[in-house]
Structure formats: C-alpha cells, structure tokens
Amino acid sequence: MSTAQIEVQLIAMVVAAAAALPGVFLVLRRMAMMSDAISHSILIGIVLAFFVVHNLSHPLLVFGAAATGVLTVVLVELLNRTKRVHADSAIGLVFPLLFSIGVILISRYASHVHLDLDAVLMGELAFAPFDRLTLMGLDFGPRALWLMGGILLLNLLFIILFFKELKLATFDPGLAAALGFSPVLLHYGLMTVVSVTAVGAFEAVGSLLVVALMIAPPATAWLLTDRLSRMLTLSVLFGVLSALSGYWLAHLLDVSIAGMMATMTGFFFLAVFLYAPRRGILAIARRRAYQRISFAGAALAVHLLNHENLPEAMEECRVDHLGEHLRWEEPFAKKVIRHLVRADAIRYDKEYLQLTPKGRLLAQTVMER
Amino acid sequence: MSGEFLRLLVTDYTLRTVTLGAALLGLTSGTLGAFAVLRRQALLGDAVAHATLPGIALAFLLTLSKAPLILLLGAAVSGWLGTLLVLAVVRNTRIREDAALGLILSVFFGLGLVLLTRIQKMPLASQAGLDSFLFGQAATLMVGDVQAMALLAAPVLLLLVLLWKEWKLISFDPEYGATLGYRVRLLDTVMTSMIVVAIVIGLQTVGVVLMSAMIVAPAAAARQWTDRLSVMVGLSAFFGALAGVCGAILSSSTSQLPTGPSIVVIISLIVAFSLAFAPNRGLVWDWVRQARNRSRLRLDTVLGNMMLLARQHEEADYGHKAAAIGALSGGRIGIEARLRELRREGFVEMDRQGDWHLTAKGVARCEMIVKKWEP
C-alpha cells in the first residue's frame, strides 16, 4: 500500500464517520430528504464563493457553501409557511432550482477551473492526496484530511455537548419545548452541522453520495438497536466499513471510489434489512410463521380438550378429520401436529390425537386467558 | 424573431426533433406529476429518477446497444425496482419514507456511477453519450429517441384518460374508493408505475439528477390556479411542455448551457410567478389584501379617536389639531396623510384655523363601527 492509498482511505473513513453522526438525527427526526436538498444546493454556494475568492481550497468556500445549505432550509420553511404547497413538494421545488443555477454557472463560467460536473457528482477522492497542506515549507498531509478531521471533531463536539437536548428534542419535541429548550435553535444548529459536513464531504465524494453516507449507515444501525448512543456508534462503524470496503472494491474493479462507497452502504443496509436478528425481514417472517403455528397449536389443544372423554371424541380427534373441523389444509395440519408433538403436548394413539397432561395444561391456560 | 423561429421549426430537422421531444416530456411529466403531487409522492420522483441510472448502464452493458427503447426500458425496470424497495423498507421496518427515499436514491445512484465509470473504461467507442443522462442533453435527441418516448407515453396517457374517475378517486379519497369496491392497492401500483414511466421519458432531455423537478414543479404551479383536477392536470401538462420546449431550445441554441438545468430554471420561474400572481391563491394578492386591511384599520382608529375627542365638547364638529389626534392614535408620524385620506373619503374636514373635525358621514361611520363591535 502506498502512502497515497493510505491517505485516501483515511480521508474516506473520516468523511464517512463525520457524515454518519448528524445523519443519525436526520433519520430519527424524519428529515433525511433535507440532506438531499442541502447537498444539492451547496453547489451554488461553492460556485459563488469561488467567484469571490478564486481558490477552491479557501476556508471562505466552506462558510459560503454552508450558508447556502442553511438558506435552503430557510427557503423550504418559508415556502411551507405560505401553505400553498405540501411540505415534500417544497423541498422538491427549492433544491433543483438552486442546483440548476449552480450547474449552469459552472458550465458557463467556471469550465476553465478544475470544478467540472463529474467532480460535482463523484468528488475527487483519488486526487485528494495531491492537494497538500503546507505550512512554512513543511508538509502536513492532505488538506482534505485536515478539513474533514476538523469537521468530524466539530460534529462530535456538537453531539457530545448537546446530547441531552438533541435526544429530548428528537424523541419528544413537545416536552423539549415545554422544558425551555428551543427546538428552532437546535433545528438550525443541526442543519448548520449537516451543511458544513456536506460541504466538506462534497469535495471528497461529490454531492449525491454525501446523502448515501448520511442516511444509509444510520438507517442500518437503527434496525439493530434501540439505544441512541449505540446507534451513533454503529452508524460510524457501518460508515467506516463502507468506506474501506468501497475503496478496495473500487480499486479492484477500477471504478468510481465514491460510487462504490455508496453502493457498499446500500449493501450493508440490505444485509441488515434481511438478516437483522429482530427487525430483519427473515426474522420477521420466521416470527410470524412461528406465531401462526403456535396459535394454531393452542387452538388444536383447546379443540381436543373440548371433546376429551366425550362420545364423539373418536370422531373429532381423528387426524384426517382436522381438515373438516378446523378447516386446515393437510400440510398445515401436519405442521401443527408436529409442533405439538415436539412440545410434548399431544401424542398419537393410532389414528387419534390425545392430549398429554402438558397439553391439557396448555389448553386450560389458553381458555382461561 | 418568432417568425424566424417558426420558419426554422418547420424546416430545421434538429430543432423540430428537440422541440417535439421536449414538449412530449413536459406533457407527460406535467400530467402524471399532478397526481404525484396530489398523492404526496413528490419526493418519490426524485428517488425514482436517481434509481434509473444503474438500469440505463446495465441495459447498455448487457446489450452494448444504445437503442433508446432498450435504455429507457432498463431505466424503467430499475426505477420501478427502486420504488418497490422504498415500499418494502417502509412497510417492513420502522424506517420512515424520507430515510427510505434518501437511501434508495443515493445507493442506486452510486451503483449507477460505478457502472458508468466501468463503461467509460471499456475499449468501445459507442459508450459516449451515456453521460448525457446525468444532466440531460436535448441537442442529442434523435427521431428514434422521440419515437421511443412517444411509444412509452401513449399507453400511459391513454390509461390516464380511460380510468380518469378511478385516478381521481384514489388521489383524493382512497379509503372511500376501497369501500366502493375498487381495487385501490392495484390502482395505486399502476399509478406509481405510470409516474415511473413519465420520469423515464424525460431522462434523456432533463437528466437523472433533475428529473424530479419536472414531476413536482409543473403540478405545484398548476395547483395555484385552480381547484379542479381536470384543469390542474391540463395546466400542469401545458406548463411542463412550455418549460421543456423553452429550455430545450435555449440550451441547444446556446453553447455551454446544459438542458436539464435550463428547463428547471424556467419551470421554477413559472412556479414563482404562479405562487405570486395566481388569482385567489396568489401571495401578492394576499399581501395587498393585508396591507389594505391594515390601512383601513388605521384610518378607522383615527376616526374613532376624533369621535372621542369631539364628545368631550358640546358641539360635535369641534375641531382639533392634527398633532392632538395623532398623539391619541399611536404617534404623529403619518397622521396628516391619514387625515387627508379621510378627507378625500368625506369623513373629516379641516376648518380655517387648521383644526380637523368629523363630518356627518364620519360620525355615521363611527357609529356603524361601534355597532359592529357591540352585540
């Protein structure tokens, strides 16, 4: 591994971690699409700030662009307040316009600088190590690493300092307001953090993949835990994993690094969506099937108990009559019987089903319930 | 200028193709967008548009052909798959729609970029042009493209007309539709698929990144002008086509002007105009109404205070200096102008000493206002 490769991976990991942290709150507060809007509209901020300072690595660029991110939020809210369009339409109206103006400005006036449309969409992660931070002739490593490291630190600080407030405002905004925390202030604070992160990550992975890094890892983590602190840790973990695996796969297949990182966040989500222990699709399906069988088993036990020791018992408790009496298909009936036999609740007596003491107890508990 | 344009439209082959394609795209996305917006699926369009990218790339990778119909079918399949995944995530987990949309949108788009970069590295000459799906390139539209677009649009628009009543029902009151025995779930799926097709039709002109705006914006603009569904759909189609044609022509006649963004800027202007000036719902009329009410209220306050002052004297037309009236009515600033306005309306008069007093008409108005407020 060359130094450049290590540096690219470091940057990728830091970007992923920095994006995942505010992403958790976006996902929990149902504002995920806001990150989509912000990451698009910061483009116009970057372009305009570039026209002013003529330098893509100027710190003013970050502030200018972050300001447009917050402006997007303000515009969306103003549009909402007119009550002339739905909330989601408002988002869908604001950011395409800002993004379009940004794209037009780039293609008309900025085509001679290295701010082209491909970079806007995919970032320039592979070139990031060539842009060094040098102070007094000393090389301090890639500039992007310092920038994103600073943003990661800022995000960490924001979350640690306001953890209690964020938690309360996220899960119970009404109580938070009643206790005197300003939800508006917190909202704009979070939006500022999201904007700054989006701007920083923009250079590395492009405008659209910032969204993947902000939304997918927290969504993945949410399927695995109910604790906010654990969700934050898991999100960072999934983000970093996606960054690393994405980098190596892109290296192997010779494709866009940022695109592969986004793909990997989706891959991890899909894996967890399918296989998560409690909330995964498979776990849910298995649980539903089990509940169906065990409910049917209880019904069968009650049925047997009702006819136990009565003259018609010989008729009612025959295996091949279950279809008629309980309206079960044969394969299902067999499954239920197997379930009860395994639970030691019934036993076969030739063609007939008989409750064991354990089965009788089961039926009685069900009926008392 | 417009005569020149019309002459070119008839004679110039490229211009005709571009105009036709852009009009077709605006028409379909405007029409279907109206339903997407009414059904609060505005952002679904964004996710679908982004989700089409891997489909386009895969269709090319599998067939190595750039036949428009093949690429658009690939786009439709993958856009549709994206929609299904959004629904699957929302139905089966606690993740809400916004996060599901953001997730599918960005991951599919990332996958699309991966495939595109893969295609770019292939030793083929034919891959050029796939990039135009990102931001749209009206100038590259060929007759074959427009034919493919028409082929996709025709069944969708036909279905829209044939099942008009059903679409209306599920857009406004799906529960009622279900009680009437309509298969709402099926209709829902068909409608969403139609929206997917409308998005796919615009991809080549507007591009993956901005196509969602063509779903949301024409409908949002049309909504301001009317409360009738049929009028809204018609207007939305008109606005979409107008923006499409203007944007496409502007971009193909100007160098370095990408088509998608141009169309989006134009449709956004239409939205802004509609929000501001549409009759009834226009924000400007709102402001005018409010300003008028506020000024009336201020004038009436002055009248009322003059009445109070007059009551402290025997004769009803006892005059007062403007300054005295102003001191009672919330400040002297502007009091002269207000009094002059009231004189113009015939409620007050000024005598030779420069004192102001109520006229009989002014007294009557005061009594009327007091009556309005006292039960």
Descriptors for this entry?
heterodimer, A: 369 residues, mainly alpha, ABC transporter involved in vitamin B12 uptake, BtuC, Arc Repressor Mutant, subunit A, 2 domains, two-stranded antiparallel sheet, 17 helices, B: 375 residues, two-stranded antiparallel ribbon, 2% strand, elongated
Can you walk through the features of this model?
The complex is a heterodimer of chains A (369) and B (375). Chain A contains 17 helices and 4 strands. With 369 residues, chain A is mainly α. Chain A has 2 domains: 3-276, ABC transporter involved in vitamin B12 uptake, BtuC (Orthogonal Bundle); 282-368, Arc Repressor Mutant, subunit A (Orthogonal Bundle), CATH 1.10.10. Chain A has a two-stranded antiparallel ribbon. In chain A, a hairpin with a 2-residue loop joins strand 3 and strand 4 (352-355). The longest helix of chain A has 27 residues, at 281-307. Chain A is elongated and about 100 Å long. The mean pLDDT of chain A is 87. Chain B is mainly α and 375 residues long. Chain B has 17 helices and 2 strands.
Per the CATH scheme, the topology name of the largest domain in chain B is ABC transporter involved in vitamin B12 uptake, BtuC
Order of helices and strands of chain B: HHHHHHHHHHHHHHHHEEH
CATH superfamily of the largest domain in chain A: ABC transporter involved in vitamin B12 uptake, BtuC
Head-to-tail CA distance between termini of chain A = 66 Å
The residue ranges of chain A in which pLDDT falls below 50 over 5 or more consecutive positions are none
Domains counted in the coordinates of chain B: how many? Answer: 2
The domain tally of chain A reads: 2
Structural class of chain B: mainly alpha
What is the average per-residue confidence, as pLDDT of chain B, rounded to a whole number?
A: 88
Question: Number of helical runs of chain B?
Answer: 17
The CATH topology of the largest domain in chain A, please? ABC transporter involved in vitamin B12 uptake, BtuC
Per DSSP, the total helix count of chain A is: 17
N→C terminal distance of chain B: 65 Å
Strand order of the largest sheet of chain B: 1-2
What percent of residues of chain A adopt helix (DSSP H or I)?
A: over 70%
Largest interface: A-B, 59 and 61 residues
